[in-house]
Amino acid sequence: MIPLSGDLGNAKGIVRENLGPTETRRGTSTLKRGFAHMLKNGVVMDVTTVEQAQIAEDAGAVAVMVLDKLPADVRKAGGVARTASIRIIEEIMDSVTIPVMAKCRIGHVYEAQVLGSTDVDMIDESEVLTPADEFHHIWKWDFTTPFVNGARNLGEALRRIEEGAAMIRTKGEPGTGNVAEAVIHIKNVNTELRRIKSIYDAGDEQDLVSVARELKVSYSLVEETASLGRLPVVNFAAGGISTPADAAYLMTLGCDGIFVGSGIFKSDDAKERAQAVVLATTFWEDPDKVKEAQKMVDERQSMLGLDTKNLELRMQERGSTA
Amino acid sequence: MTGINIGVLAVQGDVAENISAIRMAMDDLGMEGVVSQVKTPEQISDLDGLVIPGGESTVIGTLSLINGSMKKIKEKIASGMPVLGTCAGMILLSKKAKDRVVGEMEQPLLDYLDIKIERNAFGRQKDSFEAEISLEKIGIPKFRGVFIRAPSVVDAGKTVEVLSKVDEKIVAVKQGNIIGTSFHPELTEDLAIHKYFVNLVQKKN
C-alpha cells in the first residue's frame, strides 16, 4: 500500500457518485498518488505538438507534458509564459494512449480549473511559466485531478504535499540543458531526509518539532516523512536533462523517474534521443545498457546548453519562498 | 533454496508495492520463499510465479521486448507458471487491446489470456475511482477496488472465468494459472488477492 501522510479525507476534490449500481469515490489521495506510482521508473517528456507527442509515445515515454513552448524557448522569448492552447492539449489527448499532463502558472487557480475540465491526467503547477501568485500556491485538495509540483529542498516539497500535491519533481534549472542544478536539489532533499530520519530514529520529538517549524509544515507530515525516510509521494528529477547518461545518473541518486524538457526536442536527433533516454532510465543499473543508450545519440546533436551561473532568469526560485 | 520464488517484473510501474504485498502475503500465510524484482530473461527463468505490476502497458511491453524478457515470460507461461497481472499487467497478458479513444494500436502483448481489452475503459485520470467489488468465485466476497485509468475486458473466451464486474464491465478474470485484474490490489492494505496468488504458486510447485 502507499503512504498517505497529509491525507485530507474531506477534501473538496473527492467526488462520490454511482457507476450503475456501484458506489464510487473519485479524487481520493489513493487514486491521485496511486496514479503517480504508475509512472515510476519512467520518463515524462515535454511536448508542444501532436507529432512530438507521438514520437514520445513510440519511444516509450510514460506520459507527455504539454507546453506552449519548450522551456529553452520560454527563456529565449521572454514575456509572460502561460498554459498551452486547450485545442492542442485536446488534439494530443486524442492521439496518444499514455497520460497527458499540462502546466499551469503557480497560484493560477483558474488555469488549473480549465486544465481540470479539459480532463488532462495531471496538472503541473510549474515555475517554467510566469507565476500568477508568488505567495500562494494552488490549494490542490480542491481538485479531482492530481497535481505535480517542483521543489528544491525538503521544506518546499512538504509544503506542496501539504497543499495537496500528489507528486513532486525536484527542480533543476529548466531550459538550460545543464543537469547541475537538478543534481544539487535531489542531493539537498536526500540529505535533509537522512537528517530527519536520524532524528526520528533517535526518538527526539522535540527536535522534530523544531524541524517542522523550520520547514513551515505540520508536525504530522514531518513525522511521517521522517519515519519513511523518503518523501511520502513519488519524486521525479527534472530540469536540464539532455543525455541518456544524465537520466541514468539522476536515477542513481534515488529518484523515482525523470522529466525531460528541452533536452529531447531541442536536440537534432529527437527520435533516437527519446528512445535512448528511456532505455537509460529503465536499465540505469546496468552500465553496459546505458552505454548502448548513450551510443544512440551524437553529442554534436545535443542542445548547446547554458551555464547556470549567469542566468538572467532563474525559474527555480519562483514560488520557492511560499 | 527452500520455498517458492516469486518475481515482480521491474521494468516500469508500481513494483515496490507488489513486492511488499507478496512479501506480507507469504509472511501471513507462514509460507517460505523469496520475492524479488526481475528484469532479465535469466532472472525470469528461475521463477515459480510472476507478478506483472501496474504502469504503462506500452512502456513495459516495448522495453520487455527489447531485452528478451517478453519471450522468456511466454515460455514460462506455456510451461504453466502462474502469473498475476494488475492493470497494465492484465493488458500485457491479453491477446488484443485497443484504446477507448485512440482505437487500435500496435503494442507488444504476451498474447495468452483469451480476452479483448479496452484500455482506459472508464475514462481518464479524473474518472479513476475506488469502489467495493466482489470476487466470489475465488472466495473473496468483498474487496476495495482501486481503478486508475483502468482497462476493462470487452470479450472473454470460453476458457476464461469472469471473476468480477463493475457496471456490467468485466474487471477480473482467470484462465488456468493466470489472473488479471483491472484494478490495483497492491495499493490497498487488503492482501486477499496476493494471498490467493501465492497459494496458486505454492500448489503448482
Task: Report the order of strands and helices of chain A.
Answer: EEHEHEHHEHEEHEHHHEHEHHH
What's the Cα radius of gyration of chain A? 19 Å
Give the spatial strand order of the biggest sheet of chain A. Answer: 9-8-7-6-5-4-3-10
CATH superfamily of chain B: Class I glutamine amidotransferase (GATase) domain
What is the multimeric organization of the chains shown? heterodimer
What's the total helix number of chain B?
A: 6
Largest sheet of chain A: 8 strands, parallel
What does this structure look like?
The complex is a heterodimer of chains A (322) and B (205). With 322 residues, chain A is an alpha/beta fold. Chain A has a single domain (31-307), classed as TIM Barrel, CATH 3.20.20. Chain A is 41% helix and 14% strand. Chain A is built from 13 helices and 10 strands. In chain A, the strands form 2 sheets. An 8-stranded parallel sheet of chain A has the order 9-8-7-6-5-4-3-10. In chain A, a hairpin with a 2-residue loop joins β1 and β2. The longest helix of chain A is centred in the middle third of the chain and has 22 residues, at 180-201. The model of chain A has no long low-confidence stretch (mean pLDDT 93). Chain B is an alpha/beta fold and 205 residues long. Chain B has a single domain, classed as 3-Layer(aba) Sandwich (Rossmann fold). Chain B contains 6 helices and 13 strands. Chain B has helices spanning 15-28, 41-45, 57-66, 69-78, 88-93, 192-204, and strands at 4-9, 33-38, 49-52, 83-86, 94-99, 103-104, 113-119, 129-135, 140-147, 152-156, 161-166, 169-175, 178-181. Chain B has a 7-stranded mixed sheet with strand order 2-1-3-4-13-12-11. A 4-stranded mixed sheet of chain B has the order 6-5-7-10. In chain B, α1 packs across α6. Chain B is globular and about 45 Å long. Chain B starts with a strand and ends with a helix. The relative contact order of chain B is 0.18. The model of chain B has no long low-confidence stretch (mean pLDDT 95). Chains A and B meet through β2, α1 and α12 of A and α1, α3 and β8 of B. β2 (22-26) of chain A pairs antiparallel with β8 (129-135) of chain B, so a sheet runs across the interface.
